[in-house]
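for the writeup, i need someone to sanity check this before i put it in the appendix. the sequnce is what the collaborator sent (i think, or maybe the updated version? ugh). structure was predicted straight from it, no edits. if anything looks off just tell me and ill rerun, i have time this weekend
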Amino acid sequence: MRTLVIGIDSGTQSTKVLVVDGKSGKVVSSASVSYGLIPNLPPGAKEQHPHTWRDAAAKAIKTALKQTKAKPDEVVAIGVSGQQHGFVPLDKNGEVIRPAKLWCDTSTAAECEEIMEKLGGLKATIEKQGIAVLPGFTASKILWLKKNEPENYKKLDCVLLPHDYLNFWLTGRKVMEYGDASGTALMDVRKRVWCKETIAAIDPELESKLPPLMPSDQPVGRLQESTAKALGLTTKTLVSAGGGDNMMGAIGTGNTREGVITASFGTSGTIYACSEKPVIDPEGEIAAFCDSTNRWLPLLCTMNVTVATEMVRKDFGWTIEKFDSEVAKAPVGCDGLLLLPYLEGERTPNVPDGTGVYLGVNVRTFEARHFARAAMEGVTLGMNYGLRRLEELGIKPTQIRATGGGSKSKIWRRIMADIFNAEVVTLKVAEGAAFGAALQALWCWKNHVCGEKVSIQEITDNFVKLNNNETTTPIEENVKIYRSLQAIQDETSKALRKVFSMHRQFVLGKYE
């Protein structure tokens, strides 16, 4: 009989499921269900209904299990990866009160300022809890609900994150593990406890509505009867703690010891490293997260990666292959055409009012391939802004493990290597978050059911494999070009921040 584990990655655009053989680490089947955001919301608002994730997960699990003809008792454990920071408000009956405000929702900038002002400002906030309160994080979304929808806030009985909600659906238990919880901006990341002062700045009664915190190596529980029946599984199936998509991506890319750095090129972009101690950024640009193996995960997040490249590709009516081909034909540095890719605002650097700006448009650069390459270069330079900040905090990259949709592009890997000035490698299992969720589930099952004393490093060393034929090393001449372009992007970003705020006021005044 096979030993199978399931990894679920519930994201902004789709839910992906991998069924993994627990003995070989091979993916035996997979499935994906796509969905979108709730349309026609106010500027900056990004929302989804948690039932969308639940229904997509159920459909994808059943499809993947059917593909591999899995027997119910072969599935020993399930792990869940979820988009971070989304605010899932539940009432006393465990029902969703309203759609979840997501990580990419930038409508709560004012609430962030209000919370940090009560805490004594940015530096005081970081001193208290190790992390700033930024629009992407959960804390400001809770205050937004209190101020803007008081009737809904009165119904609030429990705050969950997206992956916690799926764990609740699977097991009936409401908990939060350290990694994902650290992204709420409600937790003291050094001590892994709720930060009472931050909570009080929102609502002194909020602490009673936060679930218990739990270590990342512990199980949430087993499948509850109703969900097991709906999925065609048994109540013996263990559900691991799970975690945020970045935390699970770290496990799925073998980023479980110091010295490894992962870069995820998806809707958003993240770069993160494993650390044995908290890495606190006094400027608040690098998030001092915990990971989902009971250590820490210093992380930078840019909100605009494939958002920008896909917008350009679709506008030109190109296939992905055509897009990559045209990018490769344009010169390195695009003859000075540069995209400031703040299409959805930005988090690193913190520019919630930002918009996209093309600089360097002239007769020579006004052609499709230049605009396409400038989009790819612009978002990668944006990620490199944060990578350089990580270096300043003591994280030194020698190899970047690239994952996400952007990592599948050969020309994009070339641009990554040259901009990051580091070797770029890819993984044989491209879906790092779903694979990481499966490996965490296997780790949990081996230790808590089988009684084995297995470290997460042993599991990732055995099962995470590199695609050696896709390794890309930097070209010195290109590195120099991008270093100059990086300086221009950084200065442009700083120079335009007051303009962004003026522009937002204009848009709000004209259209609201």
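Residues 19 and 130 are 37 Å apart (CA to CA). The chain is about 40% helix and 20% strand.
thx in advance!!
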